[in-house]
Design goal:
Helix content: 25-40%
Strand content: 15-25%
Strand order of the largest sheet: 1-2-3
Structural class: alpha/beta
Largest sheet: 3 strands, parallel
Order of helices and strands: EHEEH
Distance between the termini: 21 Å
Number of strands: 3
Length: 65
Amino acid sequence: MAKILVTGEAGFIGSHLTNRLINDGHKVIVVDNLSEGKKENLNPKAKFCKLEEGIEICKKYFGIK
């Protein structure tokens, strides 16, 4: 199982990619600003970070100092 970062998950391609990765057993964190995608496309099993929340949440999730 890998930890994978997906950008633009609220869009068509990002949401399908995220669903596939989660179904394959990966841990997924997603970053999106929700400017064009749809919030209902977000997979609840993925850790969602709104772009404004920034890199600190991503660093914490991936254990980066």
